[in-house]
Amino acid sequence: MKHGITICGGFLALAMILPVTGCTGDGTPTLLPNADPALRKTSTELAADSAKRAYPVSAPKDVKAIARADYNLMDRKFNLANTSDSDWKNIEVWVNQEYVLSVPIFTRNSAEALNFELFYDQYGHHFQTYSGKNPVQSLQIYRDGKLYDVVATLE
């Protein structure tokens, strides 16, 4: 009987973990809503917005460090910090020059937790690492017509 309880407990734990990892089924990319109300969109809305955007290949790059980031593969999220002395409006955050998230406002000296499931490519696929087959190679911010490289550190 003790084996049966252990197995049931394992299935119950698994059932509780799956929704937290993004399998909500109601159109939202994650179980817990984003702390930023401007980023509380459905997966369909995020994908549609990303499909309208193209990576700004010809944008000039600025070497000024305006942000820093770390990311966690288990939590599948970036922690992005605006380290500049100004608020950013209507920025795009690009992962691997393919997946994008539009952020309407990002206040100075603040940080945002951005789940991988918020970033979509032009085909409607959200960012995944596929167990290392699609690693984070670059993180960039497109702001005011310029691209900024962000150093992203693995936690």
Protein described:
It is a single chain. The chain is α+β, with helices and mostly antiparallel strands. It has one domain (35-154): Immunoglobulin-like (Sandwich), CATH 2.60.40. The protein is 18% helix and 32% strand. The protein is built from two helices and nine strands. The strands form two sheets. It has a five-stranded mixed sheet with strand order 1-8-7-4-5. The protein has a four-stranded mixed sheet with strand order 6-3-2-9, with no helix packed on it. A hairpin with a 3-residue loop joins strand 4 and strand 5 (99-106). The longest helix has 19 residues, at 2-20. The chain is globular and about 35 Å long.
Summed up:
This protein is of the alpha+beta class. It is built from two helices and nine strands, in the order ααβββββββββ.
Question: What topology emerges from the helices and strands here?
Answer:
Elements: H1 2-20, H2 43-51, E1 61-62, E2 67-72, E3 77-82, E4 88-95, E5 99-106, E6 110-115, E7 139-143, E8 146-149, E9 151-154
Parallel strand pairs: 1-8, 2-9
Antiparallel strand pairs: 2-3, 3-6, 4-5, 4-7, 7-8
Q: Tell me which CATH architecture applies here.
A: Sandwich
Strand tally:
9
Question: Quick check: average pLDDT?
Answer: 86
How far apart are the first and last residues' alpha carbons, in Å? 41 Å
Task: Name its key features.
alpha+beta; Immunoglobulin-like; globular; four-stranded mixed β-sheet; 155 residues; 9 strands; five-stranded mixed β-sheet
